[in-house]
What we know:
single chain, 0% strand
Amino acid sequence: MMPNHFHFCLKQNSDNPLYRIFNDTLTSYAMHYNAKYKLIGHLMSGRLQSRRITERSYVLQVCRYIHYNPVKAGLVDRIDDWSFSNYLEIVGKREGILYSQELIDDYPEEFLDYEKSIKMYEAYVNDTGFADVLFDE
Length: 137
């Protein structure tokens, strides 16, 4: 996890807004943490930020942003060195529970030639010259 924030790209499958689930979870965690360590006050600084993704092409841009974030923050030199994301599962370098085949299944035309698509995604994510600014941090 990033030292001071985290990113998720989630697919909503219910009518419950994802931000409400996160708010409830983080509030419960903060209350538990404060009780356990006998603290009072805010545990998290800043408020939860969320973006609704309505364009298919934006999903890959968001995934790229999330995967590249630890490199941008100077925590690792290469994306492959960051173990707290599903990047290694997506590109087939690790098996684990952080990866969902749904990303591939939801974008069949982008992944028709799986091997070629994975190499293209690796190149796309690792392109340090990209200038997309998706979120203000």
